[in-house]
Write a structure and sequence with these properties.
It is a multi-pass membrane protein. The chain is mainly α. The protein is 59% helix and 5% strand. Among the domains are: 68-122 and 190-293 and 320-335, no CATH class; 125-173, no CATH class. It has helices at 2-24, 28-42, 47-62, 67-93, 98-120, 131-134, 191-223, 242-252, 254-282, 287-292, 323-331, 336-343, and strands spanning 163-165, 170-172, 177-179, 184-186, 229-231, 237-239. α4 (67-93) crosses α9 (254-282) and α8 (242-252) crosses α9.
């Protein structure tokens, strides 16, 4: 059972890491590498298995489904069950501060609330009714977002900073990206909830990791394990080292060590993505705009596919108006009713 828990934890951490990397690093070079990898594996893997895998991946990442929502809640439930069942009880016996131990639960409540809002809130879907209102919210830069462009799928005029989501099959105002973990697009009207969700998820994972690490270190110090000695297979006497301590803790508290490894990996992955998301918020960019801007620092990268005669076009961010204004735009977004009042 312990090895099953370990397998699920680390399989999920790898999966979450791949999803975050796919969101953050959608470059032409990675697409080329993916195509090259697919060609190599096509010579090894049977065609029937390839079709099955392709169908599964298409269902998971290119259609709206609740698979990742269920996976998210199951993993969160497993972590907090283990934390409550073992870590919380042991720490109480060691007279840890109750406020310190209850902090992960407070973060969990805020996280689930913001997670729910991110899932169910309209991200800013553009319709015939609000099309004209959205056209006046942002200025067209004539490079990334030219005027008088219609969406070939929705047959609507595309406001600046909007994009058609192929998964949800609608155009979204200030489109950031489609998040499989919330089964929804991230746009102008739910980006604030998404940032709070991401912040509290990172904080809760880090807090559980810190509490669990503190417990294990406290246990080692109290029992004087680091001062013990052991005899190896050749009969030589050794002072207790870090590797042997970890092995001992692993055999004594396997589930806690499994959970600690998972939340530590998760903390680093989420922490990196959170920094990226906060950078975009502070500079008033979306993931879509950052990707389409082709990364100024990667313009001369030989791995980026570009026609030989094409000169790199430098995209200038015309929507950034200072940190305070940028954050206000995210946490107090303009709604169609506000725009209607302005026009009247």
């Amino acid at each position: 059972m312990d090895f099953l828990v370990l397998f699920l934890f680390y399989l999920a951490s790898v999966l979450m890491g791949l999803v975050l990397i796919c969101v953050c690093l959608k470059t032409h070079s990675l697409k080329g590498l993916a195509r090259g990898g697919a060609q190599i594996f096509s010579c090894i893997i049977p065609e029937r298995l390839q079709r099955a895998v392709h169908g599964l991946l298409h269902y998971l990442f290119h259609t709206r489904n609740h698979t990742f929502i269920v996976l998210h809640l199951v993993l969160q439930g497993m972590v907090y069950t283990e934390y409550t069942w073992e870590v919380f009880g042991y720490c109480q016996e060691l007279d840890f501060s109750l406020y310190y131990l209850l902090l992960p639960y407070l973060l969990l409540v805020v996280n689930l609330f913001s997670f729910t809002l991110t899932c169910v809130t309209n991200p800013g879907v553009i319709t015939k009714a609000n099309e004209l209102l959205f056209l006046h919210v942002y200025e067209f830069d004539e490079l990334m977002f030219p005027k008088n462009v219609r969406c070939s799928t929705c047959d609507l005029r595309k406001p600046a900073r909007s994009k058609h989501c192929s998964v949800c099959n609608w155009c979204v105002h200030r489109f950031d990206h489609h998040c499989v973990w919330v089964n929804n697009c991230i746009g102008a009207w739910n980006i604030r909830y998404f940032l709070i969700y991401l912040l509290t998820l990172t904080a809760s994972a880090a807090t559980v990791a810190i509490v669990s690490t503190t417990f294990l270190v406290h246990l080692v110090v109290m029992s004087d394990l680091y001062q013990e000695t052991y005899t190896d297979d050749l009969g030589h006497l050794h002072v207790m080292d870090t590797v042997f301590l970890i092995q001992y803790l692993f055999l004594t508290f396997p589930r806690i060590v499994f959970m600690l490894g998972f939340v530590m990996v998760l903390s680093f992955l989420l922490g990196g993505y959170l920094c990226f998301a906060l950078y975009l918020a502070a500079t008033n960019q979306t993931t879509n705009e950052w990707y389409r801007g082709d990364w100024a620092w990667c313009q001369h990268c030989p791995l980026v596919a570009r026609p030989p005669s094409a000169e790199p076009q430098v995209h200038r961010n015309i929507h950034s108006h200072g940190l305070r204004s940028n954050l206000q735009e995210i946490f107090l977004p303009a709604f169609p009713c506000h725009e209607r009042k302005k026009q009247e």
